[in-house]
Specification:
The chain contains 10 helices and 10 strands. It is an alpha/beta fold. The chain is globular and about 45 Å long. The protein binds adenosine-5'-triphosphate and magnesium ion.
């Protein structure tokens, strides 16, 4: 897994003029949203593993419009994280192209890519890659510091974001002095601090309790609405997927379904929940297990298996 913090820190620190401009940016830019902002064309990815070729992506075409909220679902091993890494330029496709606006990202040099990532993309991974020697506030400020932005406005933005994710009381804690969920929230604030065009998140709330997850999901929707931030979220959360306006379902390295839903996704999950259920469960073996153990089954079921019901999905 690529360490995004390292990738960000490696980007060239440019002396940018008017470093306060980002802080003064209006919340809701009124302009036409760009179609096909981020595009994967015929993307293949193979890895060599102990002499064997592992075909992980086998021809993926995906086009994401500016301001879209897209979630990627599918069984473990389907290639979701691999696709996210390629779209986020953390890795190169074996074949095919990744484009952002008019730029072919697969043709950029590594320092161009580092600058591109720093400015345009906010990453949130399940494993947060925070810098252990810096406190929460400094970690959130880091992408701006790397970019040479002025500390004052940057600190205010970082503080406001940490407040938004419920960490106003933990600004000066280092990652080792935060819980796993708190660390994840710091990583989220860090991903948002540059006000990126696209936020890419790989199971961003996979380790969080349902209340914190919900507040972070709300934050995603809010940012999408107010700043038109584009979101690409890999998730195993059926609840989140049911509320996302577009659900891309992957299986065995290809996109199996790609569904855009009507407007009412945020509130009424009823109709979409069915579609998402299908996406999640259509791969399941059809010989369904009994829903609830009745008396007849009870004696056959081991009751002791502690933690057997715990699932990280
Ligand atoms: N560097 C690598 N070398 C060899 N195989 C790899 C490598 N990275 C990923 N794979 C394989 O590619 C497949 C897809 O991996 P990926 O991480 O994209 O799955 P995923 O859909 O994100 O799964 P999960 O839901 O479990 O996170 C897996 O079978 C994995 O073992
Ligand atoms: Mg994954």
């Amino acid at each position: 897994m690529t360490d995004t913090a390292t990738a960000e820190t490696e980007s060239p620190a440019k002396a940018e003029p008017a470093p306060t401009a980002a802080a003064e940016k209006p919340a809701a830019p009124k302009r036409a949203m760009r179609e096909n902002l981020l595009v994967a064309e015929g993307v293949h990815k193979t890895f060599l593993h102990e002499g064997n070729v592992v075909e992980v992506l086998r021809g993926v075409d995906l086009s994401i419009n500016e301001g879209e909220m897209v979630c990627v679902v599918g069984a473990s091993g389907a290639g979701k994280s691999t696709l996210l890494h390629l779209l986020g330029t953390l890795d190169l496709p074996t074949k095919g192209r990744i484009k952002f606006a008019d730029d072919d990202l697969t043709r950029m040099t590594s320092s161009q890519l580092a600058a591109f990532r720093n400015e345009k993309i906010g990453f949130v991974f399940q494993f947060h890659h925070l810098l252990p020697e810096f406190d929460a506030l400094e970690n959130v400020m880091m992408p701006g510091l790397v970019r040479g932005q002025a500390r004052g406005p940057l600190r205010e933005r970082a503080r406001a974001l940490l407040e938004e994710v419920g960490l106003a009381h933990r600004l000066d804690h280092r990652p080792g002095e935060l819980s796993g969920g708190e660390q994840q929230r710091v990583a989220l604030a860090r991903a948002l601090v540059m006000e990126p065009a696209v936020v890419m998140a790989d199971e961003p709330t996979g380790n969080l309790d349902s209340e914190t997850s919900e507040s972070i999901h709300q934050l995603f929707f809010q940012l999408n609405e107010t700043r038109k931030t584009t979101f690409l979220i890999v998730t195993h959360s059926r609840d989140l997927a049911s509320r996302m306006p577009r659900v891309v379902s992957m299986k065995d390295g290809v996109i199996q379904r790609d569904e855009r839903k009507a407007e009412s996704y945020r509130g009424g999950a009823d109709k979409t929940a069915e579609a998402v259920d299908e996406v999640f469960w259509h791969d399941k073996p059809t010989g369904d297990a009994p829903e609830e153990p009745d008396e007849e089954h009870e004696e056959a079921e081991p009751k002791d298996a502690e933690g057997a019901g715990a699932s990280d999905d």
